Amino acid sequence: MIELNDVSFLKSSIDAISSFIPEGNFRFNDRGVHFRGTDPSQVVLVDYFIDRSVFDSFEVEPAYVGINLSELSRIVSRAQPQDHAVINLSESELRINLRGELERSFKLPLLDISDGELKLPEARYDASVEINARLLREALKDASLFSSSVVIKTKGDRFFLESKGSAGVLNVNSSPSKGVKVKSKADVTSKYSLNYLQNIVKEAGPDSVVTLELRSDSPLKASYKIGKSEIVFYLAHMLL
Fold it and tell me: Can you give the residue ranges of the Proliferating cell nuclear antigen PCNA C-terminal domain (predicted)?
């Protein structure tokens, strides 16, 4: 049995994952709950972990189970701010009780998803950018005026974002900003899907920090905190 008094971070986490992945495998063990999976087109990989200490009670048998994330997202979205969640796992189903002014019980059948556990991309990056989530979302909204993709660059301690199309051109730079911190071993230029990036950061709190790790013409690693848990995305690059 797993108990959780604050359901809000779980709602945001499941929403972030289900934006890309409709179903996938969760691992429950004595460390906590772990999810790793890719979207159907294999453009983005999500790696998510909730440490057992985050839960108010955590007593589970080790298990590796398939869950429909789209349906799980629909269920946890029904949690009210005052609700307390109790989660139980059996051999055939996941049971979620939301206890507040009313007690509501939901059951999801477990799925047989044959995908093996995925390996993470090699962690070799030339630059990292720590940027306020609100600033990044606004820059991506600006980019959407002209294109469906963005070019991200770093030069020294500066961060740049570019978007261009037949309607116009956008150039964003970080000179100098308290909301952006760049660490760079080499200048970086790489191109990514704008829609994927917007979905990656949509559940980051407005005051949270999104960390982007970059290498020219290579997948991007984006990570941020949701409550006391961390979610990590690996996004494939596009050809320049």
Answer: 119-236
